[in-house]
Predict the structure.
Amino acid sequence: MKRMTRKATRHVNHNEGLIFEKSSPGKAAWKLPPLDVPEVNTAKLLGTAERKDLGHMPEVSEIEIIRHFTRLSTWNYAIDLGMYPLGSCTMKYNPRVNEVVARLEGLANGHPYQPEKISQGALRIIKTLSECLLEITGMDAITLQPAAGAHGELTGLLMVRAYHDAKGNPRKKVLIPDSAHGTNPATAAMVGYSVENLKSNARGMVEVAALEAQMNDDVAALMLTNPNTLGVFEQEIHKIAQIMHAKGGLLYMDGANMNALVGKVRPGDFGVDVMHLNLHKTFSTPHGGGGPGSGPVAVNQPLEPFLPKPVVISKSDGTLGFEYERPQSVGRVRSFYGNFGMFVRALAYILANGPDGLRQTTEDAVLNANYIRKGLEGVYDLPYATPSMHEVVFSDKLQAKRGVRTMDIAKRLIDYGFHPYTTAFPLIVPGALMIEPTESEDREEMDLFVEAMKSIAEEVEEDPQTVLDAPHTTRVSRLDETAAARKPVLRWKPE
Amino acid sequence: MRYLPKSPADREAILKAIGARSIDDLFAPIPAEYRLNRDLKIPRQMAESEIVDWFRLRSKENGLEYTNFLGAGAYVHYRPVIIDSLISRGEFLTAYTPYQAEISQGTLQAIFEFQTMICELTGMEVANASMYDGSTAAAEAAMMAVRVTGRSSVVIAKSLHPEYREVVATYACHQGMPLATVGFAETGRLNLQELEQAITPDTACVLIQSPNFFGTIEDVATIAELAHKNGALLVVSIAEAVSLGIVEPPRDADIVAMEAQSFGVPVGFGGPYCGVIATREKFVRQMPGRLAGQTTDRNGKRGFVLTLATREQHIRREKATSNICTNQALVALMVNIFMAVYGKVGLKELAKQNLSKTAYAADQFGRHARVLFAGAPRFNEFVVQTSEDPYVINSRLLGHKLVGGLPLRKFYPELGKAALWCCTEMTTRTSIDTAVGMLAESEAEEPSGEHAAEEVAR
């Protein structure tokens, strides 16, 4: 390594097999209390439905389980270890008080079917969070039922379709910019819409003239991420909304990048009709290695009748309850009421911030992205010079001349103690490096990041092979993904 | 704001470095007329102690100290404490989806173990890394069957969780996927005559739940035979995962769509939970959701990666098998740890305790009311029909800090004054006896046929 930063150093980590490889008969990590009712004869009770054997399920002791998963955990990078600049993923600090309040007994052990009379606490949380999110988005009504962002997209487009249906024509197409995340077109297909691509202009924004030409009575909605995946705010958003509305279409906003807007501008104010939020991005609930998320969908008044059921209402006696009589509802998208535990965490985050904290958070997120941009401009190619909001997208154009691509740079970044940025996305930037620092990074961490990126750029010139072979410091080197897909081994089997 | 690591001087210095005069410069791309020039109208910034107090009050208003007999897709089982100690490690809690395999081996190996254990328990050959929950897993499994068979319609058991049925209907509605429903027989099991009539040459799959919504264990082999004879797949939804410890898994199914909440996940007012899809190896390329696979690194060392991504939305976009991206990874880790704790022997003993408590309770209830569906084995739920409205009985119980069974009027009005009761290893004999005593106040003292049947079974 050319210039060793202070960010990371080698340390011992433990080898660990699969849990099955530690198993042997007679070991156990469980103990049940004595049975206080007569023990049944399972063979008599179940007959042929009785299960005799649990196959290769492991038998291990408690200390082995603790060590097993603790050792595995040390093989992961995490926000708690340092900057995790994945673009469009908003890897911000996950406050610990969120975890504490989500585990309070009445909330963690509340049954979804317990009577409303004894569910007022949970209902109050749903109501309060809904109100906060409506104020933040400037929208009129909301559902918290969707379990993740893509699930929110599905819910939002189902409502779009129901809205058009109620007017007599569901329409046929959804317009999606070429910079969009893959969930957008996949979702449109699930709702029975065909997808029409919308080309970005030279500034990385929606080309208003092209939109005008493509917009017609067949188009149900435009799915727009704002700021878009380049981290660029769609400056002509009001014109975009006007064009959609003039021909009876709706403007759907993918709220993946809401961390750039909270407290500074509200989608409801600039013409958005329906949008989803990601509580696991903007509102600090932990990503947990890929989930759980939560994808509330906020809409304006004309779409309110189509919200999934049930919705929370205030009853005449002052208590809260669920309303199921919703004749125009798109139906249910999930059992019960959604990922309630994530509502608790997101609300705790909002309460910890208040209006001033949320605004400062947004400002810091945008400040940080621009600091990174400034630090790396000239070192890496900046395909779009348009001002950045909360993330910045470079390309590997300069490094590609030496045969080094974005993924190689990303892998080398690991050796410097950082998680890579998002690679090869958005698709409109060949060899993209998409960097979102979030507000959670201090100056020192960002300086180290910039220094690491500069050092790698120098290595590309002087010793590209070091970069191409990276990472060098991890417990495994680059893994053979082709072999994994060609002959999939998707489970352990005894030898 | 205590989560933000910058001093005012840092902010000034950064602005200077960027060449911006003020923070407003950075928000200049937003048209001025849309910028918010006021505070958001949300509660003021709170101290950590105030936040804890606020949520403590909500916790108190939320059934704290009540004992409940509710199941119906959300089951109260004991959660070994090491689950929370382990999932609270920041390396699991605060990591992203393991796309960068070299620094995500912990999450990836855990998913691989999860997939393996789900296969062992369900009798399937491959399992994915998780789905949102049991209801969306059922819906995605039905859509998967449509892709596999090239047929379009789905036959659904009425004894599938009513909310799962609603979700399947929502997902199906714009996919050109007609749904037909098949009722239940006197035994609580699927009505096989009706099923036979409902299956057509266009049926992609038969979707059932076992143990079904009433707790009754279905005759999966016979249903599979009927489906397969007609070229349809069998999808089995499992809402109560603990049943797999003592109930034969649906080995004749083609797809299992599971809810694994019972394995160490708090009931938590309905979520987050952990859906899973498991299936046959030959269908894996039609399966939705993430998959971890084993491979080797450049030095031949074993390692794990996310694989078969060409099924997924970030590669295939509108042609993907599903739009799912974020799943329930951390919840799947809870499930994984739970399965490791109980393991081969513990899961069986745990399931047996559930069975014993439920048999005792059904027997006791049967002395005063009619316990339905006696003709088939059940796991840990049963339906009690009373002469008094179950809502009235429940309000009496509530006064004694007991939450009675789920009244079924909303979902199954044809069952009359009936409620779905659930007992797990957490249900004490004392609470069962108290509940039975309070129900008996309004019921005639005559044992039903069910009571006699239970006696014989023991």
